[in-house]
């Protein structure tokens, strides 16, 4: 079965020009097959890039990429509810759902389930597929045993299965903005201080040990997920798509390395070594997949032939 | 005006009897396994214990609600099916569920079994709630602890089911059901294993200067000076450092408890159908005192009298209390 590298939604608040430049380079130079666009974390950030979205999508599509629009993950207040409804009503776009509110609108219309929606078992997967879900991006915390069982059912249902293989993993969402809180502000007068931390704001323990990364209402892992060496194993389990998350490091290099390993043009060992030469300023982690604590690095299992 | 039901926690059969005797309209409890989000050693009910407890409660006119509020990991769904089947067989009054497939199983196999949507399902908009009502016939939603009273009033008017709100107990700020912080640090998952900062991973370390560090696996979650009372190391209640701050600060929330006792009249006025007291992990004495206090308060308000609410601050976490999100959205 073919395997495709994808670029997940940009979780961070980058200036509009930086995002434009980023996606233009992705269009021109990155091997990813699918690009997920749209503000997932904070409805207050939405206006900054909204008007660029369609032209960015067009540019990516002209470069041969598939484009998917993602929904917000937290939908509570009127502004968010209106944004979600408008998002769900657009025609002619592949849509990825990150909040159950969207399922009300998208029932019996084809849609994707995002990596922030709770799908933990094959029965939930089958239920959602029965209502129009065609593709499932999984939560970072799922261990191999769960992905294996989901892979079996995904094949039976004929739906896509996607796992995040690179970047900080989402660990928690809140209604409170922790970026604003760190700066002694509230969400309503945040002055978009999250822009200062394009890969998230590091939280250290009282022992100065880096622990977590804050991105507005979201808490991420301090470590970067790196499942490069596990991709062959995951392919054998039925995973069809491999998601790399945007960060400020050289994402052209990152996506090329992951694609080279995924498509068998480079050994995982060589890819891992090269990934470590990119100067990413955080440890790599893969514990969740191996059933350990998420922050752990476990020696990857021997690749299973696909 | 609706008289809200008082929904009370029971971690053990003894606590259940205390809650019933103290005037609970309903008690909620879980099985001794991963099917509930308070899967702690020494807590929860075996099937025979539950059977006796249901009889005790029903004889006294109290309902029993069962928390099946975790997410079955693939390959282990049978444990949750069995729990749903047991609930139906024992004639419990409702199950409190979070997972779509668990709700679907209950609806299709036990259509008479009443379904409440757990706070763990994180349904925080009329659209999300309506989805669960339409798909699974959910009769009541337990609201996330993130809404102001005026937002709750608006919601009650918009949704086709009953509303239950937390009024007392733990006050976490992460969206429940969308948090894997514990799994990141310990390898045990809140959603799959029902673990949140599990005791087996907790360490207390005192240094030469008599400071106490509270740790979860390798991480120091907080450090207390010689004159401070050390709290339990819950990740979202810890003190951390970041570039924007000098010294440690509560990055998420202080160790503080929700106490909405002053807001009960407004909540009743907003049309809330049930008030929930958190604390299945708490002692029998705690349950007895808190339930009795809120029984008295709700009855007084309904009788048009000023409620005399006992001082509950001594029972709260860190002896500090908050009205949480209820009063203003400024906390966001």
UniProtKB/TrEMBL annotation, chain A:
Keywords: 4Fe-4S, Hydrolase, Iron, Iron-sulfur, Metal-binding, Protease, Ubiquinone biosynthesis. GO terms for biological process: proteolysis; ubiquinone biosynthetic process. Pfam families: Peptidase_U32. [4Fe-4S] cluster binds at residues 42, 177, 190, 194. It comes from the Bacteria. Its cofactor is [4Fe-4S] cluster. One of its GO terms (molecular function) is metal ion binding. Pathway: Cofactor biosynthesis; ubiquinone biosynthesis. Required for O(2)-independent ubiquinone (coenzyme Q) biosynthesis. Together with UbiU, is essential for the C6-hydroxylation reaction in the oxygen-independent ubiquinone biosynthesis pathway. Belongs to the peptidase U32 family. UbiV subfamily. Forms a heterodimer with UbiU. This is Ubiquinone biosynthesis protein UbiV. It comes from Rhodovulum bhavnagarense. The lineage of its organism: Bacteria, Pseudomonadati, Pseudomonadota, Alphaproteobacteria, Rhodobacterales.
From TrEMBL, chain B:
Belongs to the peptidase U32 family. UbiU subfamily. Pathway: Cofactor biosynthesis; ubiquinone biosynthesis. Keywords: Hydrolase, Protease, Ubiquinone biosynthesis. HAMAP family: UbiU (MF_02232). One of its GO terms (molecular function) is peptidase activity. Forms a heterodimer with UbiV. This is Ubiquinone biosynthesis protein UbiU. Pfam families: Peptidase_U32. GO terms for biological process: proteolysis; ubiquinone biosynthetic process. InterPro entries: Peptidase_U32, RNA/ubiquinone_mod_enzymes, UbiU. Required for O(2)-independent ubiquinone (coenzyme Q) biosynthesis. Together with UbiV, is essential for the C6-hydroxylation reaction in the oxygen-independent ubiquinone biosynthesis pathway.
